[in-house]
Amino acid sequence: MRLRQLVIATSEMDVLAESICDLFELRRTFSDPELIVFGLANVLIPLGDTFLELVTPVKENTSAGRFLKKRGGDGGYMVIVDAPDLEQERRRLETVDMDIVWHENRKTEGIHGQSLHLHPKQVGGAILSIDNMTPTSSWLWAGTDWRKDINKSLVSHLSGVNICGPHPDNLLSTWKKALGKKTTIGSNSINLERSNINFIRNTQSQSEYVSAFQIHTEKRSEVEKRAVSKGFFTNNNIHLGGIDFLLFE
């Protein structure tokens, strides 16, 4: 199991996509018409074989619209992990009283993509989706031709996500249950393949939210200089779309 896609809800999708792509030298690859079932439009941006997704409401009374209103602006909305056996995950979730609120089951051009969205109030901090692709090298949510749009000149892949709340131990417990993972005593992180999910104490409010995305780079100083020049560097971090982008080498 590994982190595969991180989602930002935004009211200015095209503007934010342009800023992210310009800063990190990335490319938009796909917009999924199927998301209209949720009242959303989206765009996918590949970082290697991981993805940033930006979603924006295009209809009234959507969950993303309510999220934006409650948060007062853009923010981290969803965490998507890639699991090798989705049926096994579904059976496991039944034993730990985690409700599945949406099951996506789509076949296109020989690719079979599935996802299980868990009840956000039972998990906390973000919508969590456990997904699976056949073949495993594919990622149908980004279409069938996303590899042509990969550019690793500055950043290579998403490597983690930080989730913030007043009681991070409680968040860690629910996410461990949702993902079927264990942690070492004293750890505030769930380790996945090539990635991690970290739980950070929020001392400013009672809110639970995604506070940061981690991105792997071998050119940290160059990316930071670009962020400063473009006005995206705040409090020693790159900040875009209501999210801190933390660089890891």
In short:
This protein is of the alpha/beta class. It has helices spanning 13-24, 63-71, 86-95, 120-123, 168-179, 220-230; strands at residues 2-9, 40-47, 50-57, 75-82, 100-108, 111-118, 127-134, 155-165, 189-192, 195-201, 209-217, 233-234, 237-240, 243-248.
Secondary structure topology:
Layout: E1 2-9, H1 13-24, E2 40-47, E3 50-57, H2 63-71, E4 75-82, H3 86-95, E5 100-108, E6 111-118, H4 120-123, E7 127-134, E8 155-165, H5 168-179, E9 189-192, E10 195-201, E11 209-217, H6 220-230, E12 233-234, E13 237-240, E14 243-248
Parallel strand pairs: 1-3, 4-7, 8-10, 11-14
Antiparallel strand pairs: 1-4, 2-3, 5-6, 6-7, 8-11, 9-10, 12-13, 13-14
Plain-language structure description:
This protein is α/β, with parallel strands linked by helices and 249 residues long. It has 2 domains: 2-147, 2,3-Dihydroxybiphenyl 1,2-Dioxygenase, domain 1 (Roll); 150-248, Roll (2,3-Dihydroxybiphenyl 1,2-Dioxygenase, domain 1), CATH 3.10.180.10. The protein has helices spanning 13-24, 63-71, 86-95, 120-123, 168-179, 220-230; strands spanning 2-9, 40-47, 50-57, 75-82, 100-108, 111-118, 127-134, 155-165, 189-192, 195-201, 209-217, 233-234, 237-240, 243-248. Strands 2-3-1-4-7-6-5 form a 7-stranded mixed sheet. Strand 5 (100-108) and strand 6 (111-118) form a beta hairpin. The mean pLDDT is 97.
